[in-house]
């Protein structure tokens, strides 16, 4: 009986150490950059100021679409805003802004004060639609082509390098 108890105790210790070892060696950072190359199947974003949705059929005439998740309360969103304003002038790019967990009046004031870079504006009041895009914080931007394949995902504010990368992609 004593031998069985010893074997049981040793087995439990080995099991516990094994669980800790494998858990600590797993990558626990949630990173959605791995979505690049994946296809977005169903786009359905609630329009900001009017009834209805922005869907795949509304985007099919564009070579590239950049979906930017932002909010008026987001300080890094202000940093990337000048780059978005510059990107609005690109002929083969459609910019969609998704206002994330924000008050409508605050979002309107933000766009009035800093300029509206978006061709289309959507809202995600409760943060549920952002999950479909793999967004877990803002700002985040997703560039995809007219086949809805994700080409680039920017986690955090669009930087000068990201802006240059997007411009180079658009030239192709």
Report on this structure.
With 172 residues, this protein is α/β, with parallel strands linked by helices. The chain has a single domain (32-171), classed as Glutaredoxin. It has 6 helices and 7 strands; from the N terminus they run αββαβαβαβαββα. It has a 7-stranded mixed β-sheet. Strand 6 (140-145) and strand 7 form a beta hairpin. The protein is elongated. The protein starts with a helix and ends with a helix.
Summarize the structure.
With 172 residues, the protein is an alpha/beta fold. It contains 6 helices and 7 strands; from the N terminus they run H-E-E-H-E-H-E-H-E-H-E-E-H. The protein has a 7-stranded mixed beta sheet.
- By secondary-structure content and strand pairing, the structural class works out as alpha/beta
Percent of residues in beta strands? 15-25%
What's the CATH C level? Alpha Beta
Low-confidence stretches: none
What is the terminal separation in angstroms? 74 Å
Mean pLDDT over the residues: 88
Report on the biggest sheet: 7 strands, mixed
Question: And the CATH topology?
Answer: Glutaredoxin
Q: What oligomeric assembly is this protein in?
A: single chain
Give a quick set of tags describing it.
single chain, 172 residues, alpha/beta, Glutaredoxin, 7-stranded mixed β-sheet
């Amino acid at each position: 009986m004593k031998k069985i108890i010893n074997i049981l105790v040793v087995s439990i210790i080995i099991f516990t150490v094994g669980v800790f070892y494998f858990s600590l060696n797993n990558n626990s950072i949630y990173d959605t950059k791995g979505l690049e190359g994946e296809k977005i199947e169903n786009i359905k974003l609630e329009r900001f100021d009017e009834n209805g949705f922005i869907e795949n059929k509304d985007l099919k005439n564009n070579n590239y679409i950049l979906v930017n998740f932002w909010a008026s309360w987001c300080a890094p969103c202000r940093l990337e805003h000048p780059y978005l304003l510059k990107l609005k002038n690109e002929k083969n790019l459609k910019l969609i802004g998704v206002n994330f967990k924000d008050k409508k009046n605050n979002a309107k004031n933000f766009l009035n004060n800093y300029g509206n870079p978006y061709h289309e504006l959507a809202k995600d009041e409760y943060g549920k639609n952002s999950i479909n895009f793999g967004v877990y914080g803002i700002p985040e931007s997703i560039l995809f082509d007219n086949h809805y394949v994700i080409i680039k995902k920017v986690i955090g504010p669009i930087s000068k390098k990201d802006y240059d990368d997007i411009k180079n992609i658009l030239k192709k």
